[in-house]
Each structure stands twice: as structure tokens, then as C-alpha cells.
Amino acid sequence: MGSMGGSKHLKSIAAPRYWPILRKEYKWVVKPSPGPHAIARSIPLLLIARDVLRLAKTGKEARRLISEGYFKIDGKVRRDYKFPVGMMDVIEVVGANEYYRVVPVPTKVLDLVKIAKEEASFKLVRIEDKTTVKNGHVQLNLHGGRNILVRVSDPRNPVEDVYETLGTLQVALPGQEILNYIPLKEGVVAIISGGRNVGRVGRIVSIHRGMRRHRSIVTIEDKNGVKVQTSLDYIFPIGVEKPLITLPEGAW
Asked: In 149-172, which positions are buried (b, 16+ CB within 10 angstroms) versus exposed (e)?
């Protein structure tokens, strides 16, 4: 009888191209555990500690640091060295007073940006879908697997539900209190999370709606006046007048 489920191993050659690993030197690489982000859109915590932050020289040293609780993801200690770290996650190196946010960047797809302690107290999450649950309350389904329940007093007139799909919430960490809401509309600042223009930041100029989300086209204009187009799927609002998060130097 064959084994059930997916493979527990991942070859280096099959890993996402933006992972900072030596593909021809080592046959195998850490495979992320099932979690809030897909393999193609995340980096295992061990690689963050060893290859990105360079806080360890070997995988054994990195595993020890992680198991001893030196890393917090979104305000929670993570001891699984395979934990998938993805877009907009906040990383804290406990005891070192260092904080980082994972953001989309050109060519590298995902990278870490150092942030201040005050900024590490919140996270941006995109609303992927909305569902109505028992008693007429509204559940917001967010990227990264989070869900937030919006309680309404009158299900027939849910005035509390001011949130729209593909808009962005600014939520507190480690809790999920909603601090701010950034709608998806013309004039807001957005970052491109995928495709050939990944990491580009600009103000939304126009939104052309197609039959489906991936067929809808959004045009953004960067700080130099250059306009680029991308799929609506890749648009992530990050601010109204200016970005709410720290971006790589030169991005905005």
C-alpha cells in the first residue's frame, strides 16, 4: 500500500526560485509545514534565521535558536523551524530588539525590511472573501488564513459591515483588533504582490473590471510617473495618502 498524503521532503531544485539556498551544493532543503501560507509564497523559519538574517551558521544552530523561543511571528513565539513565514508577517528576534516585516520586492519576490518596534505592533491583511455566519454576523476571510468576525446588530441592515473584498485591514498584534481599513479604489497606494512587476509600489490610477478577478486589470503609477498594469489578484492596498508600512529604500 502506498503512502498517503504529500511528501514530507523537498528537493533544493524544486524549491521556489527566490529562496536563498545553494541548490547545486545540497540536494534537500527544509519543506515548510502546512500553515498560513503556501510553499510558493513563504520561506521556512529556519532559512530566515540561517540564510536571511544570518543568526546561525548551520541548520542545527538555527533549530536550537528557534526551539528556545528566540523568534516571534506576528507576536507569537514559533518553535517549529519549518513554520512558513509569508507576506506581511512581522518577525521579532527576541532579546535583540530587532523587528522585520516580510514584503514583496522586485526579483526576490519576498524579502525582509527592518522596522521600528512601534510598527511591529500591527499587520496589514487583505480581505480575500466574506461570508455570513450564524445570527447574520459577517466573517472576513483574510490572506494568511486569518478570520475576523464583524458583529452586526441588525442582519437585515448590517451597517457595521463597511468592508469590501480585496480591501486591506490594519490589525493589532498579537490580537486581531481592527485599527484601520484601506479600501481598494482609485487613489490609494498599493503594492504588487506577484507577477513580473512584483514589488512595485504606486497609486492606483484605474481599475478595469473583467469577468473574473484574475481578468481584471489595475493600473498603478509610481513616484516617477511610470505606469504599470497588473492583475487585480496581485494588488495589495497599503495606504490612502501614504504607505502605512516601511518599504525597501527607493520603493516609495
From this structure: ebebeeeeebeebebeebbbbbbe
